[in-house]
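Hey L., structure's done. Input below.
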Amino acid sequence: MSWLGLLLIALSLMGYNGSIRRLGVSPYLAWITSILVQILMDYVFAMLGLLHLGLQLVTFFGVLLLVIRLILGHFGKGSLKFEGIHSFDFWMVSLGLVMAYVLYHSPLVHYDNFSHWAVIVKFLTFTGRLPGAHDAIISFTSYPPATALWITQMVTWTGYSEGAMLVAQFGLIWAASYAIFNVLRNRTRSLTSFILCLTIAVSYVFNINIRLNNLLVDYVLPIITVAGLVGIYIYRKQPWHLSAHVAIFSASLLLVKNSAAFFVAVLVVYFLYELITNAQGHWYWRIFSIPARFAVTLVVALAPFLWWERHVKTTFTESKHEISAQAYSHQLSGEGTTHIVKIGEKFLHQIMSLNSLSTQGIILINVILFGGWFVIHYRNRQRNQLLGMLILLDFVFILYYGSLFGMYILSMPYAEAIVLDGFERYMSSTVILNLFIGAMVLVRAIDRTFYEQDFSKRDLRGFKSIVTKNTYQLATFLMIFFAIIMMYSEINGTKYTNIYNRGTLPIQLDKTSKPWTKLSHTKILIVDPHPGDVDSYYAGYLANYYYFTDKAVGQENFMESKSDFKKNVLRYQYVVVPEYHHTFTVMVRKVFHQRVRTGLYKVERDGLERKH
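Output:
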């Protein structure tokens, strides 16, 4: 990694952060807002065909903003209010750095990294443009490029590597996570602060199918949504900040993935609620201003995505996972009633199973919120919103179940739908979203139960009795302990995964040869002794990514005649043997009279020439 490049990215981010804080953005939301603003700027340059220039201009503009602020600060202008350092800041910084270090030394292994998410970053980095109709290496051409643009911006300066990509995405996630501390009524209270820290750590339990050592966006979607909801709450009485915030976060979410529509709907509904609740002026002014502000914000938020949709339709004749009513109609007509009923039965069985991680998460959220409501209402004799929030979150779960079932019957082949392919992965997103929402409402409800409501008087004497003081201290200690332990569990889990994956195909390929960075149509055969890797196209996708070509093919079965074997091999320009394959080795010895074991070989007419 280039430390000078990393410093440049950090200085640029600080420049954006300070500038938008001067515009009134909350310091806890400033980091994620700065990243999203840069993503949208990168997106405009990418759509105009000026990606490389845009990455440079966006980065240097941030540095320029920082320099201007420092100069103004020298003359006593442009200073920012210091928010203080709190206990959760130490937790975020220390454990965040440890996690980043582990991720930097983590390989990419998950299938979807090589079918799209890592491939698009590599494509953007080394071609400097969005994929076109002839770039067959990109399969999912309808997927928007938001996270890929941010990762590309970072690796452009720090140097391209899988670890740098993971750190870039983790930085986005960590910045969005930091926003939740904005909801604390009193940030000096360690109990409520570390409940939120624990929530961050626990959320990774429900992301276990993906983990942070992958570039998939199933965690990115809910955590950005959470930050968006925090901003709506914080800016609810500042209409201009509120509209700008919703437009930026909604536009960014829609550019993360097509399925972000559900999460944007959550933001938009809450936005409309706050507009109506906090509207000021005469009734006839509210009747005009609320719909107008709502409509303008929605149009601005949708504009980048509509631009992307137009780009997809005009660039590609057909695109995987493209949003199309005609495609959905065709899929539905192809699915018989019997198939839909079978999928429905399997779906119901899954959501009712206590072995389902998402179901366990839903139960956990219900138990905690109901328990909190019961104790505060009957023990402390205080009204609170926890029961109402619980009902609302369960309604969100039901809606998401409906949208997920619709995806299975409308967008997915029956063979995949009947096994509920990716169910836990998809459900984890909404479990994480509702977990954070429930935790944020809970900590505010807990804070209102404290004996001393005057923040300036909250000290060691600000307790009702010695019993409540001891209870508070014990609870705080437990929250700190479990918040650290659970985060270290995720860190150690990632380390274990890295060790466990040492024998996987991506690691073997990395030992066989160095990755290529020049896009080509080179025909490559990857020899894989594992039929599952070949049948699932994992080997082919991986080789396409690693050697940056759209002509890589995986093959496991070489039980053929000598003449057929020779014809087969001569169809390729290179052969890669990442792991010893007995049949292939024997056939090479018989046909070409050579001994091969592992390595990268160039195909010649009279045999294989070892290149690495």
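Residues 100 and 171 are 8 Å apart (CA to CA). Residues 466-500 form the longest helix (35 residues).

-- N.
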